[in-house]
């Protein structure tokens, strides 16, 4: 192992936490001293029973398992094979190194069954122990690094997803603002123009019917002059809500501009649209609006005819609205 690799291994090894289980005091002390030179944390147990308890307590206190368990086999109360079998049942991924004078075939089979990573026969030589330990520490450090990389990738993905969601939400919000009248919350003129174009093209292809209703609040200027623009704005908001609450689910309502509104009636002929407009007129007339109490509106209705364009349809509805205004307001005309 070259000097750079050794330096990197020693650096990584200082993050390793291990449990060392040995019943013989002199061996335990000398080996634990050697281990403490290479790893950052060493827990020591005198037999298998204490080893199991320390293993459980360490996980409970730290939220993680030891990176490595090193154990003898021949110990009182609970031997190394029993202990490592119990540990493997708790954590199947646990790295385990066995150091023992025993090397009979039955014992080796038991160790293989448990899934022991490495076995060193006593008496151990320092250089042999160091080579095995360094290999295991290197494998563990690589595994820890891979886990950390996976965590970082997952964290980066989560942050990326959050950022994407934020951008999507921002775009949705911006798109909504672009087509929404800020004061009333209804669609604005831009959106109404797009819907008209789309619906009329669809109607021509499917030979369906479509009508529009222009609505203008009667004598709105005196409301602003008498009560102020803040009250005027509240009236517009309340009026918009009345319209929204009393149209069909398939209809689209928006603010055309000022105190003028437009309803696009899907698959509605002139009779159906006149009926809707008259119903709205009565509801508005009988609604008690805050501050001004009484309010009326005039309605101009037009239905799409052969040869019509968006402009001609809007022009006929606008003329019908003018007629309603000219004939005394609070009327529906076509």
UniProtKB/TrEMBL annotation:
One Pfam family cited in the UniProt record for this chain: GGDEF
Enzyme class (EC, first level): transferase
A Gene Ontology term for the protein's cellular component: plasma membrane
Residues the record lists as 4-aspartylphosphate modifications: 72
Molecular function GO labels: diguanylate cyclase activity
Residues annotated as domain Response regulatory: 17-137
Domain of life: Bacteria
Any single biological process term in GO: cell adhesion involved in single-species biofilm formation
Secreted listed as a keyword: no
Catalytic activity: 2 GTP = 3',3'-c-di-GMP + 2 diphosphate
NCBIfam families: GGDEF
Domain GGDEF residues, every copy: 208-334
Keywords: Phosphoprotein
Protein name, per record: diguanylate cyclase
Documented EC number(s): 2.7.7.65
